[in-house]
Structure formats: structure tokens, C-alpha cells
Design a protein that fits this description.
376 residues; mainly alpha; single chain; elongated; 22 helices
């Protein structure tokens, strides 16, 4: 800070006490304007100690000024990288959204901990402002999609700078049943993991089917057939797979071709939470397409996993790991695991083969009515 700026700062600080004690509202606002001008014009050069001094001044002023002046202060300080952190927090937690929104949307002084606290304690308007930040971590989006209303969730999903955790995607999946727009938004996200894409698709299909059948009860069977076909095409489309999924499928096929894909590797995939690799491995070992394996893996019950695993010749320990993976990623719990174990142990390989042939036949029948493709 140069000598002239330092002198101006000292004069303002001397004036502050008198202003707060005796000055009218107009004088307080003018003092705030002068302090803000002084800070914004030299913020880049201020030391941490000097920023802390301004923080003290701002905190004193914002407690004694009207909302309109606070909103103006928020708009001026929000884009400043070295803005005083305490006053930024004070403004972020103001009940008036006109005051809080600028800093919630722009200020880099608010870390994830503060943002999450704000989401959990303030209004939907505060959440909407946070959802528009340039960057949103998975931890923040988790609480936004959990607690936010429809507008907040749509804004969060539409934000190209938003990251989503496994829990975040699971929460989104639980909300799409009555929100076709949300389903479409999430489905178009290029970063969405394959297993979440499939689960969203399944939920959306149920929603669409129920609404169409209610509107056209005389055509219920045709509606169901059309929805199943649309679901099949979307689920198997190459464009529906992100880059990571395609790479994972290719890696597993290469391992299988080289004779290096064994039960130990499948178990490792499952224990490490790798859905794409586990699913592709099950497809290879059971000699079915990836799309057939996927449709069986995401069924609400665990029977599909048991059928695939029995044909693949996997031990119960590996099957248990795969069921745990599937349930954890889907945010659900299958039937009692002991019952699954008993069913698996009693399931005959010949019976499993027969059921699997039925699934293959269903896919082949659907393909004859649609364009040919090769999903590996």
C-alpha cells in the first residue's frame, strides 16, 4: 500500500467510530462507499494483515446499514479474489437473497464447508445461487440435489462446472421418476457413469410408460412395446457410453481374448467398485453381449446377477462382491443376502443356461425389428 492510500485508510478508520456512533444513515452509506472504493482499488496489493483490517471495518459497517447498501457491497466484493473473508461469509448468510446471491455465486472465498453449511441452513434461493457457481464439487452437489427444489436441481445438473459423486447420482436417480425433464438433463451429461445412466433410463421408462398408458388405455400394449424398444436402443447406443465405459469394455475384451480374464480379476473389479469392468467381464465369461449383461445386472432383484454368475462358473464369494457392488452403486439393498446365497447354491448350471438363452432370444427378437448393431 502506498503512503497516500495508507493515509486515506487511517483517516477512514478514524472517521468510522464517530460515524457509527453519531452519523445518520446517509453518512454511514457514504463511509461504506469510500471504504469499498479504497479496498477494491488496491485489493491486489494488500497484505493479509491489511485485508484483515478492512474485514474489521466492513463488519462494523454492514451491521449498521440498510439492505440496499449491503446488496451493493455484495455485488462489488463478490468478484474480488482477495475480498475480506469474514464479511463475505456475513453477506452469504444474509436472509435477503439480493444480498447473499452475488457472493454465493461468485466469491472464491467460500469453501465447500461454508457452502454446504449455507445449503443446509438457508433458503432455496440461496441454493439456487450456489448452483450457478463456476465450479461445484461433488460434495456440494450432493446436498444441492438432496435438499434443493426442482429449479435448484435442474440448475445444478445444467451447470457444466458441476461434479457429481456416486451419492449425488444415486440421489438424482431417485428423483427422476416424476421429473422427465431432469431425466433428460442427466441422461445428456457426458460424464455420467454407465450404471447410473442405465438406472435413470429404467426409471424414466417406467414414468413415461405409466403416463402414456393412462392417457391411452386402449393402446396400453402398443405403448409398452414402444417404450421397451426405445429403452433398448438408448441403453445399447454407443453414444450413450462415455469414453471411460468404452475403454473399460475394450480392456476386458482384450483380457478375455488373451486368456487372462479369470474369477480373481472379476472379484477385484467388483471390490474396487468398477461397474463397467465387472459388467463387461460377466458378459465375456457368460458369453452374452454387454447389453444383455447390463439389463440383468440392473434388475431390481439380484436374480440376474445370480444367473450370469452361475453360467460364468463363479464362486459365491465373488458373487457376493458383485451384489454388494451393484447395491452400493444403486443405493439399494437386494433381498436377504443369505437367501441369495442359498438360491445360488441350489441353482443348477443347466437352469441358468436356459434362463440366459431366454434373455438372448429377447434381445435377438428386438434386434430383428430395429437397426443392426454390434456392442461387443
Amino acid at each position: 500500500m502506498n503512503l497516500r492510500a495508507k493515509a486515506a485508510s487511517e483517516n477512514l478508520l478514524d472517521e468510522l467510530q464517530d460515524t457509527l456512533a453519531h452519523g445518520p444513515v446517509a453518512r454511514r452509506v457514504e463511509t461504506l462507499r469510500r471504504v469499498t472504493d479504497l479496498f477494491v482499488n488496491g485489493a491486489v496489493d494488500y497484505s493479509d494483515e491489511q485485508v484483515a483490517l478492512f474485514d474489521d471495518v466492513f463488519e462494523c459497517l454492514v451491521r449498521h446499514i440498510e439492505a440496499k447498501a449491503k446488496a451493493l457491497l455484495a455485488r462489488r466484493l463478490a468478484p474480488v479474489a482477495k475480498a475480506p473473508p469474514r464479511v463475505i461469509r456475513h453477506l452469504a448468510f444474509d436472509d435477503l437473497i439480493d444480498v447473499a446471491a452475488p457472493v454465493l455465486t461468485q466469491s472464491t472465498q467460500l469453501d465447500d464447508h461454508v457452502l454446504i453449511e449455507n445449503v443446509r441452513s438457508k433458503s432455496q434461493g440461496h441454493m439456487l445461487a450456489i448452483s450457478k457457481r463456476q465450479v461445484l464439487s461433488g460434495a456440494v452437489t450432493e446436498v444441492l440435489v438432496e435438499l434443493g427444489n426442482t429449479e435448484v436441481v435442474h440448475s445444478t445438473v445444467n451447470n457444466p462446472g458441476a461434479e457429481f459423486s456416486e451419492q449425488g447420482y444415486s440421489t438424482l436417480a431417485s428423483r427422476v421418476g416424476t421429473d422427465d425433464t431432469l431425466s433428460a438433463l442427466v441422461g445428456m451429461a457426458s460424464s455420467i457413469p454407465r450404471h447410473h445412466y442405465l438406472k435413470l433410463l429404467a426409471k424414466a421408462s417406467v414414468s413415461v410408460r405409466s403416463r402414456l398408458e393412462a392417457a391411452h388405455p386402449q393402446e396400453a400394449s402398443e405403448v409398452a412395446t414402444a417404450v421397451r424398444e426405445a429403452s433398448r436402443r438408448a441403453r445399447s447406443a454407443r453414444d450413450a457410453m462415455n469414453k471411460e465405459t468404452v475403454i473399460a469394455h475394450g480392456l476386458v475384451r482384450a483380457l478375455h481374448a488373451d486368456g487372462r480374464l479369470d474369477e480373481q480379476l472379476v472379484g477385484s473389479f467388483a471390490e474396487e467398485g468398477k461397474f463397467d469392468e465387472t459388467n463387461a467381464a460377466m458378459a465375456c465369461m457368460a458369453n452374452v453381449t454387454v447389453s444383455v449383461a447390463e439389463s440383468m445386472m440392473i434388475e431390481s432383484r439380484a436374480e440376474g446377477v445370480l444367473i450370469l454368475a452361475k453360467v460364468a462358473g463363479l464362486s459365491w464369494a465373488t458373487v457376493h462382491a458383485i451384489i454388494n457392488l451393484r447395491d452400493e452403486l444403486a443405493g439399494m439393498k437386494s433381498a436377504d443376502i443369505d437367501a441369495c446365497r442359498i438360491t445360488y447354491e441350489q441353482l443348477r448350471p443347466t437352469t441358468a443356461q436356459q434362463v440366459l438363452r431366454f434373455h438372448r432370444m429377447q434381445q435377438e427378437t428386438a434386434q430383428t425389428s430395429g437397426p443392426a448393431r454390434n456392442d461387443g
